[in-house]
Design brief:
single chain, mainly beta, four-stranded antiparallel beta sheet, seven-stranded mixed beta sheet
């Protein structure tokens, strides 16, 4: 399994970005996938996730209504569309995946240890 993020960059507050996570060895019917982020000096935190298949999409409170997670089976790619970005969204964003067989359920969606495959991260910087 390989995950490669792209799409990060510098954006002004209120702007938008769409992150991509190109995958290999991942089928979205058989894997749970997620986006996490890590700001300088802070713990890595969950942003959004999708259970396998047509599973439930979940969002952390701090991005609810602003971010949208999606996946494209044909392109083996997952996305995070971010709107109304704020300076506090500045972080390295990571995509993560775990096979359905190892996924303990929606309750564990935002738990870092749930996932055993990670990308290298992409930097998002939001200026005020």
């Amino acid at each position: 399994v390989q995950l490669v993020e792209s799409g990060g960059g510098l954006v002004q507050a209120g702007g938008s970005l769409k992150l991509s996570c190109a995958t290999s060895g991942v089928t979205f019917d058989d894997f749970a996938v997620a986006w996490f982020r890590q700001a300088p000096g802070k713990e890595r935190e969950g942003v959004s996730c999708i259970s396998s298949g047509a599973g439930r999409r979940q969002y952390a409170d701090y991005v609810q209504g602003r971010f949208t997670i999606s996946s494209d089976d044909a392109k083996n790619t997952m996305y995070l569309h971010m709107t109304d970005l704020r300076p506090e969204d500045t972080a390295v964003f990571y995509c993560a995946a775990v096979s359905s067989a190892k996924f303990y359920g929606d309750t564990y969606c935002f738990i870092r240890l749930t996932y055993d495959h990670w990308g290298q991260g992409t930097q998002v910087t939001v200026s005020s």
